[in-house]
Amino acid sequence: MAMDIIYGERANPGVEADAAGGGLWLNRADLKHVAGWEYKPQGFCKGEVCVPVPDARKGEFVDAGARYNLAALANLIGQPVVTDAEFNVVCVGEAAAERKRMLTSLDAPDFTLPDLDGKMHSLADYRGKKVFVVSWASW
Amino acid sequence: MPIAIAFDSGGNAATEPWIKAANATYPCLIDRRHIVAELYDMVNVPTAVWIDERGKIVRPSEPAGVTDAFRKMNRTNFSIPADAMNELQAKRKAYQDAIRDWVANGSNSRFALGEAEVLKRMHTPDDGQVRAAANFRLGEYLFEAGHAEAAKKYFEEAKRLRPESWNYKRQAWALEDPMKAGGPEFWAAVDSLGEGKYYPGPEDI
């Protein structure tokens, strides 16, 4: 069925996926497009990083039709998965360990957001200046 | 360079009057999905983080120049007694002075913290808290897609998993009714803190 998959900051509408049994089975191209992962002999890889899949559990991650279970991979690396069955939306969040790694590096995590006119600004645009990031809200 | 980030799922419609009125000379960005709150582990507004010229965090997320004195506010006419107002203004000025000191003195400012102190003060999220963020994100996605009713249970789950996040509470209330974020539910939540702090601010400013 077609599902909207939110992965990291990006939402991917209408991805063909099988969510049977709490899984999230995608084909190879969608796994790469949605989540950036590629399945290789050494496991799931993104750039230089590979996550090995235990041989005995391979069936949880890969099926005979060359589909890959993104939910199982997320569980393996500590990413939360939340699914809305009514509107077929699934959100794969960031792992606590990854958030901790980013923050404790003390390198300010970059972000890109619009102003009122829709112009995009990134924190990285202001490298070389001191930056005072302050939150507020209308509520 | 100040960068103001609005944690506002209401987007431009919610933030435009405030941004226009502020007429700021620095970027005022709109963060519908509370991305910056997640990246920097912020649970309330106003929360600030200080970043130096190399892109390094020199003060982790902290309440920015505010105190719990607002709790003395008259809940009918929203007036604040003079002593509480003086406390709020003194705290704000002290925080602004600390920023100016950092701008003038850089890493020699006593308010620009060393790595060990930044790490000591920094909070990083646990599994439940990142699950809260994923629930909030899903709720916000459904809300933005026009499914306000379906969004509610994910906002509720985010609030349940991370009760210390005033962002989740007040944003979810505001999406139900713009007046609700400062209404009886808000004050009941503040009262339930007892002697606890709403803004546990830094002790060195």
Briefly characterize the structure.
Chain A is α+β, with helices and mostly antiparallel strands and 139 residues long.
What does this structure look like?
The complex is a heterodimer of chains A (139) and B (205). By secondary structure, chain A is an alpha+beta fold. Chain A has a domain at 2-97. Helix content of chain A is 20%, strand content 35%. Chain A has 4 helices and 12 strands. Chain A has helices at residues 28-35, 58-61, 70-76, 96-104, and strands at residues 2-7, 10-16, 25-27, 38-40, 43-46, 49-51, 67-69, 81-84, 89-92, 112-114, 120-122, 131-136. In chain A, the strands form 4 sheets. In chain A, strands 2-1-9-8 form a 4-stranded mixed beta sheet. In chain A, strands 4-5-6 form a 3-stranded antiparallel beta sheet. A two-stranded antiparallel ribbon of chain A has the order 3-7. In chain A, a hairpin with a 4-residue loop joins strand 8 and strand 9. Chain B folds into 2 domains: 33-121, no CATH class; 127-191. Chain B has helices at residues 11-22, 35-40, 82-105, 115-121, 127-144, 148-161, 166-176, 184-191; strands at residues 2-7, 28-31, 47-51, 57-63. Chain B contains 8 helices and 4 strands; from the N terminus they run E-H-E-H-E-E-H-H-H-H-H-H. Helix content of chain B is 49%, strand content 11%. In chain B, the strands form 2 sheets. A two-stranded parallel ribbon of chain B has the order 1-2. With 205 residues, chain B is mainly α. The longest helix of chain B is centred in the middle third of the chain and has 24 residues, at 82-105. At the A-B interface, strand 8, strand 9, helix 4 and strand 12 of A face strand 1, helix 1, strand 2, helix 2 and strand 3 of B.
